[in-house]
Amino acid sequence: MSFQNPVFIPGPTNIPERLRKACDMPTIDHRSPLFGQILHPARAGVRKILKSETAEVFIFPSTGTGGWETALSNTLSAGDKVLAARNGMFSHRWIDMCQRHGLTVEIVETPWGQGLPADRYAEILAADHAHEIKAVLATHNETATGVKSDIAAVRAALDAANHPALLFVDGVSSIASMEFRFDDWGVDVAVTGSQKGFMLPPGLAIVGFSQKAMQATATAGLPRTFFDVRDMEKGYANNAYPYTPAVGLLNGLNEACTMLLDEGLEAVFARHHRIAEGVRTAVRAWGLELCAASPDLYSDTVSAICTPEGFNATDIVSHAANTYGVAFGTGLGEVAGKVFRIGHLGSLTDVMALSGIACAEMCMADLGLDIPQGSGVGAAQDYYRANPAPAKKAAA
Fold it and tell me: Is pLDDT of 204 > 70?
Protein backbone atom coordinates (compact mmCIF):
# COMPACT_ATOMS: atom_id res chain seq x y z
CA MET A 1 0.00 0.00 0.00
CA SER A 2 1.29 3.47 -0.85
CA PHE A 3 1.15 6.42 1.52
CA GLN A 4 1.06 8.68 -1.54
CA ASN A 5 -2.35 7.51 -2.71
CA PRO A 6 -5.63 8.58 -1.12
CA VAL A 7 -7.75 5.85 0.44
CA PHE A 8 -11.20 4.97 -0.86
CA ILE A 9 -12.43 3.03 2.13
CA PRO A 10 -15.45 4.25 4.11
CA GLY A 11 -13.25 5.08 7.07
CA PRO A 12 -10.77 5.88 8.35
CA THR A 13 -10.72 8.66 5.80
CA ASN A 14 -8.00 10.86 4.35
CA ILE A 15 -6.62 13.32 6.91
CA PRO A 16 -6.06 16.94 5.81
CA GLU A 17 -2.63 18.29 6.67
CA ARG A 18 -4.27 20.99 8.79
CA LEU A 19 -5.80 18.32 11.03
CA ARG A 20 -2.63 16.23 11.20
CA LYS A 21 -0.84 19.29 12.52
CA ALA A 22 -3.63 20.02 15.00
CA CYS A 23 -3.31 16.52 16.47
CA ASP A 24 0.49 16.86 16.69
CA MET A 25 0.89 19.00 19.78
CA PRO A 26 3.04 19.15 22.90
CA THR A 27 1.93 17.45 26.09
CA ILE A 28 -0.21 19.64 28.32
CA ASP A 29 -1.64 19.14 31.79
CA HIS A 30 -5.04 17.65 31.03
CA ARG A 31 -6.30 18.78 34.42
CA SER A 32 -5.48 22.42 33.81
CA PRO A 33 -7.74 25.23 32.53
CA LEU A 34 -5.77 25.05 29.25
CA PHE A 35 -7.38 21.69 28.49
CA GLY A 36 -10.81 23.26 28.90
CA GLN A 37 -9.94 25.63 26.05
CA ILE A 38 -9.71 22.57 23.80
CA LEU A 39 -12.50 20.44 25.29
CA HIS A 40 -15.40 22.87 25.49
CA PRO A 41 -15.06 24.38 21.99
CA ALA A 42 -14.83 20.86 20.55
CA ARG A 43 -18.05 19.85 22.31
CA ALA A 44 -19.77 23.04 21.15
CA GLY A 45 -18.63 22.43 17.58
CA VAL A 46 -19.99 18.89 17.59
CA ARG A 47 -23.32 20.18 18.94
CA LYS A 48 -23.56 22.55 15.96
CA ILE A 49 -22.73 19.78 13.50
CA LEU A 50 -25.47 17.64 15.05
CA LYS A 51 -27.81 20.60 14.46
CA SER A 52 -28.82 20.70 18.10
CA GLU A 53 -29.34 23.46 20.61
CA THR A 54 -29.50 21.25 23.69
CA ALA A 55 -27.66 17.94 23.13
CA GLU A 56 -25.15 16.98 25.78
CA VAL A 57 -22.03 15.99 23.88
CA PHE A 58 -19.67 13.37 25.31
CA ILE A 59 -16.35 12.40 23.74
CA PHE A 60 -14.71 9.15 24.81
CA PRO A 61 -11.28 7.72 23.90
CA SER A 62 -12.80 4.94 21.78
CA THR A 63 -14.51 4.34 18.43
CA GLY A 64 -18.08 4.24 17.16
CA THR A 65 -18.51 0.83 18.78
CA GLY A 66 -17.77 2.42 22.12
CA GLY A 67 -20.39 5.01 21.28
CA TRP A 68 -22.95 2.23 20.77
CA GLU A 69 -22.07 0.83 24.19
CA THR A 70 -22.35 4.30 25.73
CA ALA A 71 -25.89 4.64 24.37
CA LEU A 72 -27.02 1.28 25.73
CA SER A 73 -25.27 1.12 29.08
CA ASN A 74 -26.25 4.60 30.23
CA THR A 75 -29.96 4.39 29.48
CA LEU A 76 -31.13 0.77 29.73
CA SER A 77 -31.34 -2.13 32.18
CA ALA A 78 -30.90 -5.88 31.71
CA GLY A 79 -34.03 -7.41 30.24
CA ASP A 80 -35.23 -4.19 28.63
CA LYS A 81 -36.71 -4.60 25.18
CA VAL A 82 -35.36 -2.75 22.15
CA LEU A 83 -36.56 -2.66 18.56
CA ALA A 84 -34.09 -2.89 15.71
CA ALA A 85 -33.94 -3.81 12.03
CA ARG A 86 -31.10 -5.90 10.67
CA ASN A 87 -30.33 -4.60 7.17
CA GLY A 88 -26.53 -4.70 7.13
CA MET A 89 -23.38 -5.58 9.03
CA PHE A 90 -23.37 -2.59 11.34
CA SER A 91 -27.00 -2.88 12.38
CA HIS A 92 -26.23 -6.57 12.97
CA ARG A 93 -23.30 -5.72 15.23
CA TRP A 94 -25.34 -3.26 17.30
CA ILE A 95 -28.02 -5.93 17.74
CA ASP A 96 -25.32 -8.40 18.82
CA MET A 97 -24.09 -5.90 21.41
CA CYS A 98 -27.60 -5.50 22.79
CA GLN A 99 -27.95 -9.24 23.19
CA ARG A 100 -24.57 -9.53 24.91
CA HIS A 101 -25.75 -6.88 27.38
CA GLY A 102 -28.77 -8.96 28.31
CA LEU A 103 -31.30 -6.87 26.41
CA THR A 104 -34.25 -8.39 24.59
CA VAL A 105 -34.19 -7.42 20.92
CA GLU A 106 -37.20 -7.51 18.63
CA ILE A 107 -35.49 -7.85 15.28
CA VAL A 108 -37.08 -6.84 11.99
CA GLU A 109 -35.17 -8.82 9.37
CA THR A 110 -34.73 -6.59 6.34
CA PRO A 111 -33.06 -7.39 3.00
CA TRP A 112 -29.54 -6.02 2.72
CA GLY A 113 -29.78 -3.15 0.26
CA GLN A 114 -33.01 -1.84 1.76
CA GLY A 115 -33.43 0.96 4.28
CA LEU A 116 -35.02 0.81 7.71
CA PRO A 117 -38.67 -0.31 7.48
CA ALA A 118 -40.30 2.67 9.18
CA ASP A 119 -43.76 1.35 8.29
CA ARG A 120 -43.05 -1.92 10.10
CA TYR A 121 -41.65 0.02 13.05
CA ALA A 122 -44.91 1.97 13.14
CA GLU A 123 -46.97 -1.22 13.31
CA ILE A 124 -44.86 -2.72 16.10
CA LEU A 125 -44.83 0.47 18.15
CA ALA A 126 -48.57 0.99 17.76
CA ALA A 127 -49.18 -2.56 19.00
CA ASP A 128 -46.92 -2.09 22.04
CA HIS A 129 -49.66 -0.77 24.31
CA ALA A 130 -47.69 -1.61 27.46
CA HIS A 131 -44.69 0.33 26.18
CA GLU A 132 -42.37 -2.60 26.76
CA ILE A 133 -40.03 -1.30 24.06
CA LYS A 134 -37.60 1.06 25.76
CA ALA A 135 -35.47 2.04 22.77
CA VAL A 136 -35.52 1.98 18.97
CA LEU A 137 -32.21 1.48 17.18
CA ALA A 138 -31.68 3.09 13.79
CA THR A 139 -28.60 2.89 11.58
CA HIS A 140 -28.72 6.11 9.57
CA ASN A 141 -26.14 5.05 7.00
CA GLU A 142 -25.43 1.33 6.65
CA THR A 143 -21.77 1.35 5.69
CA ALA A 144 -21.75 -2.27 4.48
CA THR A 145 -24.39 -1.72 1.79
CA GLY A 146 -24.18 1.99 1.00
CA VAL A 147 -27.76 2.54 2.17
CA LYS A 148 -29.12 5.58 4.00
CA SER A 149 -32.37 5.42 5.96
CA ASP A 150 -35.04 7.97 6.76
CA ILE A 151 -34.60 8.83 10.43
CA ALA A 152 -37.39 11.40 10.31
CA ALA A 153 -39.75 8.58 9.30
CA VAL A 154 -38.66 6.51 12.31
CA ARG A 155 -39.36 9.49 14.58
CA ALA A 156 -42.75 9.90 12.90
CA ALA A 157 -43.53 6.24 13.66
CA LEU A 158 -42.74 6.81 17.33
CA ASP A 159 -44.83 9.98 17.45
CA ALA A 160 -47.79 8.42 15.63
CA ALA A 161 -47.92 5.68 18.25
CA ASN A 162 -47.38 8.22 21.04
CA HIS A 163 -44.62 5.89 22.17
CA PRO A 164 -42.07 6.98 24.82
CA ALA A 165 -39.19 4.78 23.60
CA LEU A 166 -35.81 6.41 23.18
CA LEU A 167 -34.47 6.82 19.63
CA PHE A 168 -30.83 5.80 19.20
CA VAL A 169 -29.16 6.61 15.88
CA ASP A 170 -25.90 5.23 14.55
CA GLY A 171 -24.53 8.15 12.54
CA VAL A 172 -20.96 6.88 12.40
CA SER A 173 -20.66 7.15 8.61
CA SER A 174 -23.15 9.99 8.12
CA ILE A 175 -22.61 12.70 10.73
CA ALA A 176 -20.41 15.55 9.44
CA SER A 177 -20.90 14.28 5.87
CA MET A 178 -24.65 13.97 5.31
CA GLU A 179 -27.71 15.84 6.56
CA PHE A 180 -28.29 15.04 10.24
CA ARG A 181 -30.84 16.84 12.42
CA PHE A 182 -30.62 15.82 16.05
CA ASP A 183 -33.31 18.19 17.31
CA ASP A 184 -35.68 18.13 14.34
CA TRP A 185 -35.64 14.33 14.17
CA GLY A 186 -36.12 13.92 17.91
CA VAL A 187 -32.96 11.85 18.33
CA ASP A 188 -32.19 10.81 21.89
CA VAL A 189 -28.69 9.42 21.41
CA ALA A 190 -26.56 10.01 18.30
CA VAL A 191 -23.34 8.04 17.84
CA THR A 192 -20.38 8.80 15.62
CA GLY A 193 -16.60 8.63 15.60
CA SER A 194 -13.58 10.74 14.74
CA GLN A 195 -12.35 8.76 11.74
CA LYS A 196 -14.99 9.42 9.10
CA GLY A 197 -16.69 12.77 8.44
CA PHE A 198 -14.49 14.51 10.99
CA MET A 199 -11.41 13.43 8.95
CA LEU A 200 -9.33 12.44 11.98
CA PRO A 201 -7.51 9.27 13.03
CA PRO A 202 -9.60 6.67 14.88
CA GLY A 203 -9.72 7.10 18.61
CA LEU A 204 -12.77 9.15 19.61
CA ALA A 205 -16.33 7.97 20.20
CA ILE A 206 -18.57 11.02 19.90
CA VAL A 207 -22.11 10.87 21.28
CA GLY A 208 -24.93 13.35 21.75
CA PHE A 209 -27.57 12.80 24.46
CA SER A 210 -30.97 14.46 24.59
CA GLN A 211 -32.33 15.66 27.91
CA LYS A 212 -34.68 12.67 27.89
CA ALA A 213 -31.71 10.33 27.51
CA MET A 214 -29.88 12.13 30.31
CA GLN A 215 -32.89 11.56 32.57
CA ALA A 216 -32.78 7.85 31.73
CA THR A 217 -29.24 7.60 33.13
CA ALA A 218 -30.68 7.96 36.64
CA THR A 219 -32.57 4.66 36.46
CA ALA A 220 -30.47 2.64 33.98
CA GLY A 221 -29.21 -0.59 35.52
CA LEU A 222 -26.62 -1.80 33.03
CA PRO A 223 -23.10 -1.60 34.42
CA ARG A 224 -20.86 1.12 33.10
CA THR A 225 -17.60 2.60 34.30
CA PHE A 226 -15.40 3.77 31.46
CA PHE A 227 -18.46 4.87 29.44
CA ASP A 228 -20.40 6.46 32.32
CA VAL A 229 -21.67 9.82 31.05
CA ARG A 230 -22.39 10.93 34.62
CA ASP A 231 -18.71 10.67 35.51
CA MET A 232 -17.82 12.41 32.27
CA GLU A 233 -20.28 15.21 32.98
CA LYS A 234 -18.70 15.80 36.39
CA GLY A 235 -15.26 15.86 34.83
CA TYR A 236 -16.30 18.35 32.16
CA ALA A 237 -17.55 20.73 34.84
CA ASN A 238 -13.96 20.90 36.09
CA ASN A 239 -12.28 21.14 32.65
CA ALA A 240 -11.23 17.50 32.98
CA TYR A 241 -11.95 13.84 32.31
CA PRO A 242 -12.46 11.09 34.89
CA TYR A 243 -9.33 9.56 33.33
CA THR A 244 -6.67 10.58 30.82
CA PRO A 245 -8.13 12.07 27.61
CA ALA A 246 -6.77 11.89 24.07
CA VAL A 247 -5.73 15.53 24.07
CA GLY A 248 -4.22 15.64 20.58
CA LEU A 249 -7.29 14.07 19.01
CA LEU A 250 -9.55 16.47 20.88
CA ASN A 251 -7.50 19.37 19.57
CA GLY A 252 -7.91 17.89 16.10
CA LEU A 253 -11.67 17.55 16.64
CA ASN A 254 -11.89 21.19 17.63
CA GLU A 255 -10.08 22.14 14.42
CA ALA A 256 -12.18 19.74 12.33
CA CYS A 257 -15.37 21.35 13.60
CA THR A 258 -13.98 24.76 12.73
CA MET A 259 -13.16 23.59 9.20
CA LEU A 260 -16.60 22.07 8.65
CA LEU A 261 -18.50 25.03 10.08
CA ASP A 262 -16.38 27.52 8.13
CA GLU A 263 -17.20 25.63 4.93
CA GLY A 264 -20.85 25.58 5.97
CA LEU A 265 -22.75 22.38 6.70
CA GLU A 266 -24.98 22.67 3.65
CA ALA A 267 -21.88 23.10 1.48
CA VAL A 268 -20.29 20.05 3.16
CA PHE A 269 -23.37 17.96 2.39
CA ALA A 270 -23.52 19.26 -1.19
CA ARG A 271 -19.84 18.45 -1.70
CA HIS A 272 -20.36 14.87 -0.54
CA HIS A 273 -23.41 14.49 -2.76
CA ARG A 274 -21.54 15.81 -5.79
CA ILE A 275 -18.56 13.48 -5.32
CA ALA A 276 -20.92 10.54 -4.72
CA GLU A 277 -22.94 11.30 -7.84
CA GLY A 278 -19.77 11.20 -9.91
CA VAL A 279 -18.96 7.75 -8.54
CA ARG A 280 -22.51 6.56 -9.16
CA THR A 281 -22.35 7.88 -12.73
CA ALA A 282 -19.19 5.83 -13.26
CA VAL A 283 -20.87 2.69 -11.88
CA ARG A 284 -23.71 3.08 -14.38
CA ALA A 285 -21.21 3.54 -17.21
CA TRP A 286 -19.55 0.27 -16.19
CA GLY A 287 -22.90 -1.48 -16.53
CA LEU A 288 -22.88 -2.42 -12.85
CA GLU A 289 -25.41 -1.83 -10.09
CA LEU A 290 -25.27 -0.58 -6.53
CA CYS A 291 -26.28 -2.73 -3.59
CA ALA A 292 -28.70 0.02 -2.51
CA ALA A 293 -32.06 -0.95 -3.96
CA SER A 294 -33.20 2.48 -5.19
CA PRO A 295 -31.85 6.01 -5.67
CA ASP A 296 -33.63 7.36 -2.58
CA LEU A 297 -31.47 4.97 -0.52
CA TYR A 298 -28.12 5.90 -2.07
CA SER A 299 -25.53 6.90 0.49
CA ASP A 300 -23.44 10.00 -0.15
CA THR A 301 -20.51 8.57 1.82
CA VAL A 302 -20.01 5.06 0.45
CA SER A 303 -21.07 3.09 -2.62
CA ALA A 304 -21.29 -0.71 -2.46
CA ILE A 305 -20.90 -1.92 -6.05
CA CYS A 306 -22.23 -5.31 -7.10
CA THR A 307 -20.09 -7.41 -9.39
CA PRO A 308 -21.39 -10.07 -11.82
CA GLU A 309 -22.57 -13.37 -10.33
CA GLY A 310 -19.73 -15.84 -9.98
CA PHE A 311 -17.08 -13.12 -9.73
CA ASN A 312 -15.38 -12.60 -6.36
CA ALA A 313 -15.56 -8.85 -5.70
CA THR A 314 -12.91 -9.14 -3.00
CA ASP A 315 -10.36 -9.84 -5.74
CA ILE A 316 -10.76 -6.23 -6.90
CA VAL A 317 -9.84 -4.96 -3.45
CA SER A 318 -6.85 -7.29 -3.12
CA HIS A 319 -5.61 -6.51 -6.63
CA ALA A 320 -5.90 -2.76 -6.09
CA ALA A 321 -3.86 -3.00 -2.89
CA ASN A 322 -1.20 -5.36 -4.21
CA THR A 323 -0.78 -3.95 -7.72
CA TYR A 324 -1.62 -0.26 -7.48
CA GLY A 325 -1.26 0.55 -3.78
CA VAL A 326 -4.86 1.74 -3.50
CA ALA A 327 -7.37 0.83 -0.80
CA PHE A 328 -11.03 0.05 -1.50
CA GLY A 329 -13.49 -1.57 0.91
CA THR A 330 -14.44 -5.23 0.84
CA GLY A 331 -17.95 -6.60 1.15
CA LEU A 332 -19.03 -7.62 4.65
CA GLY A 333 -21.41 -10.24 5.98
CA GLU A 334 -24.12 -11.28 3.54
CA VAL A 335 -22.54 -9.26 0.73
CA ALA A 336 -18.97 -10.50 1.24
CA GLY A 337 -17.49 -11.35 -2.15
CA LYS A 338 -20.51 -9.85 -3.89
CA VAL A 339 -19.64 -6.15 -3.64
CA PHE A 340 -16.64 -3.91 -3.35
CA ARG A 341 -16.98 -0.51 -1.74
CA ILE A 342 -15.74 2.92 -2.72
CA GLY A 343 -15.72 5.33 0.20
CA HIS A 344 -16.24 8.95 -0.86
CA LEU A 345 -16.42 10.89 2.37
CA GLY A 346 -14.30 13.22 4.39
CA SER A 347 -11.36 14.94 2.74
CA LEU A 348 -11.95 14.13 -0.92
CA THR A 349 -12.15 16.08 -4.18
CA ASP A 350 -13.49 15.22 -7.62
CA VAL A 351 -9.90 14.86 -8.87
CA MET A 352 -9.15 12.37 -6.10
CA ALA A 353 -12.39 10.53 -6.83
CA LEU A 354 -11.43 10.25 -10.51
CA SER A 355 -8.16 8.57 -9.54
CA GLY A 356 -10.09 5.98 -7.53
CA ILE A 357 -12.52 5.37 -10.37
CA ALA A 358 -9.60 4.94 -12.80
CA CYS A 359 -7.89 2.46 -10.48
CA ALA A 360 -11.10 0.43 -10.09
CA GLU A 361 -11.38 0.28 -13.89
CA MET A 362 -7.83 -0.97 -14.25
CA CYS A 363 -8.41 -3.65 -11.62
CA MET A 364 -11.62 -4.91 -13.21
CA ALA A 365 -9.97 -5.03 -16.63
CA ASP A 366 -6.94 -6.83 -15.20
CA LEU A 367 -9.26 -9.41 -13.64
CA GLY A 368 -11.17 -10.08 -16.84
CA LEU A 369 -14.37 -8.08 -16.38
CA ASP A 370 -15.70 -6.47 -19.55
CA ILE A 371 -15.25 -2.88 -18.40
CA PRO A 372 -14.19 -0.54 -21.23
CA GLN A 373 -11.19 1.47 -20.12
CA GLY A 374 -12.12 5.09 -19.53
CA SER A 375 -15.87 4.48 -19.49
CA GLY A 376 -16.43 5.27 -15.82
CA VAL A 377 -13.76 7.95 -15.73
CA GLY A 378 -15.26 9.67 -18.76
CA ALA A 379 -18.78 9.53 -17.35
CA ALA A 380 -17.64 10.94 -14.02
CA GLN A 381 -15.61 13.65 -15.77
CA ASP A 382 -18.69 14.68 -17.72
CA TYR A 383 -20.72 14.84 -14.52
CA TYR A 384 -18.13 16.89 -12.62
CA ARG A 385 -17.65 19.27 -15.55
CA ALA A 386 -21.40 19.78 -15.89
CA ASN A 387 -21.75 20.22 -12.13
CA PRO A 388 -18.67 22.18 -11.05
CA ALA A 389 -17.86 22.67 -7.39
CA PRO A 390 -18.75 26.16 -6.14
CA ALA A 391 -15.83 28.58 -6.19
CA LYS A 392 -14.24 28.89 -2.78
CA LYS A 393 -13.91 32.29 -1.16
CA ALA A 394 -10.42 33.71 -1.21
CA ALA A 395 -8.71 33.74 2.17
CA ALA A 396 -8.79 37.13 3.85
Answer: yes
From residue 83, how far is each of 14, 167, 185 by CA, in Å? 35, 10, 18
C-alpha–C-alpha distance, residues 157 and 178, integer Å: 22
In 3D space, the residue among 258, 282, 259, 288 whose CA is nearest the CA of residue 271 turns out to be 259
Say which CATH number the domain at 50 has. Answer: 3.40.640.10
Q: Which amino acid is at 163?
A: H
Contact between 304 and 339 under an 8 Å Cβ cutoff? The reply is yes
State pLDDT tens for residues 220-236: 999 999 999 999 999 99
CA 27 to chain centre: 30
Residue count of the chain, please give it.
Answer: 396
Give 198's DSSP letter: T
Give the strand pairing for 166-170 and 189-193: parallel
- Sign of the CA dihedral with 110 first, then 344, 205, and 264 last: negative
| Type of residue found at 244 | T
Across residues 201-230, what is the average pLDDT? 98
Q: What is the mean pLDDT of residues 120-132?
A: 98
The most distant pair of C-alpha atoms in the chain lies apart, rounded to whole Å, by 62
The domain boundary residue, chosen from 217, 233, 262: 262
Per the CB < 8 A criterion, the answer to whether 137 and 94 are in contact is yes
How is 40-77 classified by DSSP, letter by letter?
HHHHHHHHHHTT-SSPEEEEEES-HHHHHHHHHHTT--
Residue 82 in any domain: the answer is yes
Q: Are residues 124 and 222 in the same domain?
A: yes
Cβ atoms of 177 and 260 within 8 Å: the answer is no
Q: Please report how many Cα atoms fall inside a 13 Å half-sphere around the Cα of residue 353, on the Cβ side.
A: 36
Co-location of 283 and 322 in the same domain: yes
Say if residue 207 is in the same domain as residue 271: no
Question: Could you say which of 262, 286, 317 is where a domain stops?
Answer: 262
| Judgement on whether residues 221 and 286 belong to the same structural domain of the protein | no
Instruction: Note down the domain range covering 67.
Output: 17-262
Q: How many domains does the chain have?
A: 2
My answer on whether 248 and 354 are in the same domain is no
* Contact of 301 with 344, CB cutoff 8 Å: yes
Torsion of CA 248, 252, 254, 257, to 10 degrees: -160
User: What is the tens place of the pLDDT at every residue in 327-352?
Assistant: 999 999 999 999 999 999 999 999 99
- The whole-angstrom separation of Cα 370 and Cα 280 is 18
